[in-house]
Amino acid sequence: MPKQTKRQTNPLLTILVPLYNKETTLKETLDSILMQETDIPYEILIADDASKDKSVEIVKEYQSKNPCIKLLETKENQGLAHQIYRMYALIKSKYFTVLDPDDYWISKTKIQDAITFLESHRDFTSYQEKTLLKSNTEEKIYVDYPNDCVCDYSHFCAGGGAIMGHTSSSFFRSTILKDNLSKLQNPSSERMRQSCRADSFRNFLALSQGKAYHSSKVGSVYRYSGSGLFSSKDSLKQSFDSLLFWRDMWEYFRQIVFLWTSLEMYLRVRNNLLSYLDSLSDEKLRPKIKEFLEYEQECQANIQALQNFDRMRKERFGVH
Fold first, then answer.
1. Which parts of the chain register pLDDT below 70?
2. How many CB atoms lie within 10 A of CB 319?
3. What is the pLDDT of residue 87?
4. pLDDT confidence of residue 291
5. From the DSSP assignment, how many helices (H) and strands (E) are in the chain?
6. 8 secondary structure, DSSP code
7. Secondary structure (DSSP) of 210-237
8. Per-residue pLDDT tens digits for 164-173
9. Helix, strand, coil tally for the chain in percent (to 5)
10. Which of 12, 146, 161, 306 makes the best surface tag, with the fewest CB within 10 Å?
11. In whole angstroms, what is the distance from residue 236 CA to residue 239 CA?
């Protein structure tokens, strides 16, 4: 199948690339898209968050040879969440995927495989493959599973779990955004804005509207540098961010599995959080943790439901 370079007037797929200061890895990301062997018409939408390096220069160089690339520039840094929502609003294609500019695809048929599957399986809202995590010290499969498998929302909400594919591995139907875009653009809080920009939220949103297919094929690379918004934090701060994320997902989806997961994480790290609160000197951070220390009181109103949920998941799935 041919590689695509022409501008597509009616793309079937939009590839979103949120960009900020990635001159050292951006070319590999773009090359991995442009090497695709596919007859699926696609466009590449790149939103730059006022990069200070040569990222924009690189995009324009590629754009001159590949009209399928569209660049959105920004004069002032507004945050990657803003750029993600900005691109969401411009999606007109049937499908979309997000590829961060420090990750890349290694399968030349990734687009073809994903869209061919989704076109022939209308009850699925996402297609995902395995991802290889590469760091300076190791290489491993990011989320591993032995065979092709399917996840559905009812199983997940009942406490049966679900596979959360990496950003670089996931393709979605654009319809999952249709009734949620206004809510995403006008979040209840800045924390909710940040929570909903992430790959886990996209996975949950898709799962809430259809099934997810997980191919056992390894199709992408997650370049782990330890300098990301989440990975650069120490383990306690990561735990704190994670339980707040699950709390936000409870607020968004109102499924008790989210609240249960958040509470479990909270109880594991509560004592450390209390010590952390006492040691903080940054007045901007203190209110955030103090806010969450009130979480126990909030959970008392839900404790019976949480106990019932725990009993049900143990009976149904043998979870302990």
1. 1-8, 226-233, 276-278, 280-303, 319-320
2. 12
3. 97
4. 65
5. 14, 10
6. P
7. SEEEEEEEEEEEEE--S-STTTTS-HHH
8. 999 999 999 9
9. 45, 20, 35
10. 146
11. 5
